[in-house]
Amino acid sequence: MRPVGHQERPMRLIALIMSAVMLASCGINDVPDKKNNLDASWSEVQNQYQRRSDLIPNLVNTVEGFARQEREVLREVTEARASASQIQLSVDDLTDPAKLAQFEAAQERLSGALSRLLVTVERYPDLKSNQNFLALQSQLEGTENRIAVARRDYIESVRIYNREFMVLPDRWVAAIFNGQYEKAATFEAVPEAQTAPTVSFGDDG
């Protein structure tokens, strides 16, 4: 067998390099595509939380019309809504677990306040049968379902995005073409979210 000549070695090296580049090019767009999906998923999470926030003023006003004595609960909902609205995360903040945790805590506080408000409605039969309230309650329930779906989709997008930088050869391709990687943060359920609020009506008839 004829030994490999000096001219053939560079050609083989070039061929190997070209093959590697061609293989790598198949995944060049993977990271940007997955990042776009991640950003879109987060936008939908924020969109649904905003939808819930927009429903709350009308809900509070409707309840107040029937149950003015529930001032403490109404005030808690209003304050929780204001607090949650002040915390906005951009797509650039999705790699910061502390910021996401702060956002989540504010939304959970609002969820708890809304739960307590809706429980107090049981004291007011006229309110429970009010058409405006029933429509708002239905919209709110639908929004909560949409929030759950949006959060689930975001968590899955985070998983897919982060995996891109963990498996081979995707990890090599991402390092070559996309540079420094920061792991995207995901939702962590707070302990309070696992327990339904306890409400006692005392001797209220």
Automatic annotation (TrEMBL):
<dbReference type="InterPro" id="IPR023353">
    <property type="entry name" value="LemA-like_dom_sf"/>
</dbReference>
<keyword id="KW-0812">Transmembrane</keyword>
<comment type="similarity">
    <text>Belongs to the LemA family.</text>
</comment>
<dbReference type="InterPro" id="IPR007156">
    <property type="entry name" value="MamQ_LemA"/>
</dbReference>
<keyword id="KW-0472">Membrane</keyword>
<dbReference type="Pfam" id="PF04011">
    <property type="entry name" value="LemA"/>
</dbReference>
<protein>
    <submittedName>
        <fullName>LemA family protein</fullName>
    </submittedName>
</protein>
<keyword id="KW-1133">Transmembrane helix</keyword>
<dbReference type="GO" id="GO:0016020">
    <property type="term" value="C:membrane"/>
</dbReference>
